[in-house]
Amino acid sequence: MATRRDPLAPYRRRRDFERTGEPAGAPAAPRPRRRGLRFVVQKHRASRLHYDLRLEQDGVLRSWAVPKGPSLDPTVKRLAVQVEDHPLEYGSFEGIIPDGEYGGGTVMLWDRGTYVPLPSREGRTPRHGELHFELRGQKLRGAWLLVPTRRRSPGGGQEWLLIKRHDEAATGEDVTATRPRSVASKRLLAEIAWDEGGNVEKAATGDPPEEIQKLLAARPRRRIRHAGSVWTTQGRR
Ligand code: MN
Q1: Which H or E element spans position 194?
Q2: What mean pLDDT do residues 33-43 have?
Q3: How far does the centroid of ligand 1 lie from the alpha carbon of residue 124, in Å?
């Protein structure tokens, strides 16, 4: 099948798998549909904090970087910049990307589950390429829209809008603030960085300050000092 374009080539081109613990990924291969299509949201403190929404499609995870994260308020449209397709195995990745590598920083499995494609929105012609789907995750539920725009980000990725549709799951809760921990390990970003030898002070800027306070109260060995808006560690012992 040498003639088939490898959808993961851009993903692999950007990464040195000798240096990063991210998966190189098996060749893209659609899985049987009976277990449902996977979705994952990874909270990623790279040069900036963002949330990566990934939806399984045709054997890869189609991916968007959402700087402000998802909103449960249906009147809010969140910018979602499309990035390169990721391998399915990426949906299990939580840990450190070394500083200096592509996306260097800390990655958390913030939400995961399955999704179900929904028919086009009733009563209107969908924007070409628009995605309408129901999320069945631990934090994100109900109907969502991803609407492509004609704009491109400074980095060249197509800009989309991520919008929660009106339903019972549209609670308006500030879910990125109220549920800041990993669904896989229950850890904060700072704890993942600490455990895995990453940059704790950088990771901690992605955690709510009050969660860092609780962490320090519970684990006094983990001394993280708040200096202005920057958290700094005072040694790792
Ligand atoms: Mn990212």
Answers
A1: helix 189-195
A2: 88
A3: 33
Is the model's pLDDT at 123 over the cut of 90? no
Closest CA to 179 of 111, 112, 114, 226: 111
Please give the sequence-ordered ranges of beta strands (E in DSSP) within 46-180, or none if there are none: 49-57, 60-66, 77-87, 95-97, 105-117, 131-137, 141-152, 158-164
Rounded to two decimals, what is the model's pTM? 0.89
Tokens at 112, concatenated: 């995961």
CA–CA dist 12, 138 (Å, integer): 30
Q: Find the 223 Cα to ligand 1 centroid distance in Å.
A: 27
Distance from residue 129's CA to the centre of ligand 1 (Å):
22
One-letter amino acid at 67 equals P
Query: What's the 122 CA to ligand 1 centre distance in angstroms?
Result: 33
